[in-house]
Design a protein that fits this description.
A alpha+beta; B alpha/beta; C alpha/beta; A: 3 helices; 5 strands; 33% strand; B: 5-stranded mixed β-sheet; 21% strand
Chain lengths: 87, 259, 265
């Protein structure tokens, strides 16, 4: 399942995209996020995968783009290319 | 086998009772400020219609924004999965679902069994939601239920450049001051909303058949505009608001069958 | 040399007249439904105020006029139009020569511009489709709270514990504010919460573009001291605010007009 967390507003589209088929629940991305917006949780079909915490989904466009300038980001530390983003 | 699904949305709460594979009864009430109290009220309302009591139900699944506070639910499942499950039950050929609810919009792709393959949701922004139409109806001094029908009589669609409720409201007021026909304004509103939800649908990709669920599916004007953009006829349930609760009830049935 | 800059915004039109490079007159008035007429009225008002200072001039005696803002194409008497981003950058840089990050919060739009050391626009991000982060956000919530927009700043400074407002969308934030009012939360705390919310939004945009010192805030909303404080706290940076933040864009346009005069004729 491809889960798009985020939204589109007047200034653009801000989605963090998780491919839950590729995610193996290792948690590396959760550790590396400097803003603690990710968590591991079982999805509706029983598989434990990464998701964006409910309280941060609507702030993704304000929190995440700053990581563009970081070497270690959720998307770069994932060994299965399960994460991507739209900005 | 008697099971129930209960969907606590931000504007309305829905409860549905399933007997084996048939819908026995359902109820829809405004959520209000007390989600927990509402969950009991809407469940009782559906039980009354079915002439049953809570003890008759073997399993209850809750979903929606308020799913975690339903005291009598055995399990809670996200509305994304419940909408997919419910829609496929009603229309087995459906693979793309657009849910336009009270305060959010969701685009869902699913497989033949109703399992979600891809989804995107927009609940940050009121554009294209029930709230949006409520505010526009108020601004234009028209009853909400007439918005759809009126827009279809428009000669041309006024240009509304913003899907943002606040800006759209200003634009509507300015157009009203200029004497633009209300029907044309409504058509313009629907166009702005359709563009917005079309972008959301494109994010997940569109595959036929296409269904629209949620309260806004009752607005024929918006439905028509969305169909134009998507290029597909939209399948719409007789009561589009209960699809989530139906899906939750189906998950309840599955849970029992697994035991 | 007499030049002018006209900034036609969604809520207000601003006109600035420079005489020999110095600000000689400024006007601000409501744009209304007819931007073309509003622009003309604004420039005429500015010319009148110029006359009151002993400099008699008409529209024709202006050597060069540059228009900017969302309604810039409606300014029939402009010689040239320039983008808001450009004019904001030039205006802010003139007011604060050390500025590298310009934040403009207007009535219906917000933008963040990053400048190079030399003052050239390097990057920017703008929003004019969503009311959150704009004056509309404050305006709408002020109405719900029952307080005039001009009072928001001073009231928020008295807050003890800013209320948490999690929604960015005005429509949803409105519901949150209403429930705080029902809970009898002190008005100052609610307003401070509203300011925090808008500054979070703006800070997110600043992050997108990258923050370089010094940071300046322009646009009508900069007159709200509560927003300035909230943004300073969020960004962890001191923020420079000019005395008349609303006219920064028009000032920039006028300076560009002055440059055009020197260069050309």
């Amino acid at each position: 399942m491809i889960a798009h967390y985020g939204y589109a507003d007047g200034s653009g589209e801000y989605y963090l995209i998780v491919d839950t088929d590729r995610c193996d629940g290792c948690g590396r991305c959760v550790e590396v996020c400097p803003n603690d917006i990710l968590e591991l949780a079982p999805d509706d079909y029983g598989k434990t995968v990464v998701r964006v915490k409910d309280e941060f989904v609507n702030s993704i466009g304000y929190i995440c783009p700053a990581c563009k300038r970081r070497d270690e980001r959720c998307e770069s530390v994932c060994e299965h290319a399960a994460l991507s983003y739209t900005w | 086998m008697l099971v129930a699904g209960i969907d606590i949305g931000s504007l309305t709460a829905k409860a549905l009772i399933l007997e084996d594979s048939k819908i026995r009864a359902y109820a829809i009430i405004p959520t209000g400020v007390d989600s927990e109290g509402t969950s009991k009220k809407v469940m009782n309302s559906a039980l009354e219609r079915a002439e049953l009591s809570l003890e008759d139900l073997e399993y209850v699944v809750s979903t929606g924004y308020g799913r975690v506070i339903v005291p009598f639910a055995n399990k809670n499942i996200t509305e994304i999965s419940c909408h997919a499950k419910g829609a496929v039950f009603l229309f087995p050929s459906v693979r793309t679902i657009l849910d336009m609810g009270g305060q959010d919009c969701k685009a869902i792709r699913c497989d033949a069994s109703g399992k979600v393959q891809n989804f995107a949701m927009n609940d940050k922004c009121a554009a294209g939601t029930g709230r949006f139409f409520e505010i526009i109806a108020e601004t234009m001094e028209l009853p909400l239920e007439e918005l759809g029908g009126l827009s279809l009589e428009a000669m041309s669609a006024a240009k509304i450049s913003s899907a943002c409720v606040v800006f759209a409201k200003s634009e509507v007021l300015a157009l009203l001051r200029k004497g633009v026909d209300k029907k044309n304004i409504l058509a313009g509103i629907n166009e702005a909303v359709a563009l917005r939800v079309f972008a959301l649908l494109n994010r997940v990709g569109i595959e036929k058949d296409f269904a629209i669920t949620g309260g806004i599916a009752k607005n024929v004007g918006v439905v028509r505009k969305v169909e134009e953009k998507v290029g597909l006829k939209a399948l719409i349930a007789e009561e589009p608001q209960i699809v989530g609760a139906l899906g939750a009830a189906l998950f309840a049935k599955e849970a029992l069958e697994q035991v | 040399m007499l030049v002018a800059g006209v900034d036609v915004g969604s809520l207000t039109v601003k006109a600035v007249i420079l005489k020999d490079g110095e600000v000689a007159a400024t006007t601000t008035l409501i744009t209304g439904d007819d931007a073309a007429t509003a622009a003309r009225t604004a420039i005429n008002e500015a010319l009148k105020s110029l006359a009151e200072r002993g400099v008699s001039a008409t529209l024709d005696s202006l050597d060069y006029v540059v228009a900017t803002g969302v309604g810039r194409k409606e300014v029939a008497f402009a010689h040239e139009v320039k983008t808001d981003v450009r004019c904001d950058a030039v205006g802010a840089r003139h007011l604060f020569p050390s500025v590298r990050t310009v934040v403009d919060i207007g009535a219906e739009s917000c933008k963040v511009i990053r400048l190079s050391k030399k003052g050239r626009v390097e990057d920017f991000t703008a929003n004019d489709k969503c009311a959150s982060g704009t004056g509309m956000f404050l305006d709408t919530l002020a109405k719900v709270i029952g307080v005039g927009v001009e009072k928001l700043g001073e009231l928020s400074l008295k807050a003890k514990e800013p209320a948490k407002i999690s929604s960015m969308c005005v429509v949803f934030a409105e519901s949150e504010v209403i429930s705080y009012i029902h809970k009898k939360t002190p008005v100052e705390d609610i307003i401070a919460g509203v300011h925090e919310s808008i500054s979070n939004r703006i800070f997110g945009m600043m992050n997108r573009v990258g923050i370089e010192k010094d940071v300046a805030l322009v646009g009508g909303v900069a007159r709200n001291v509560g927003v300035v404080r909230a943004l300073e706290a969020r960004a962890g940076e001191n923020i420079l605010v000019p005395e008349a933040p609303q006219i920064a864009g028009a000032l920039g346009a006028a300076l560009i007009a002055a440059k055009a005069c020197e260069g050309g004729a």
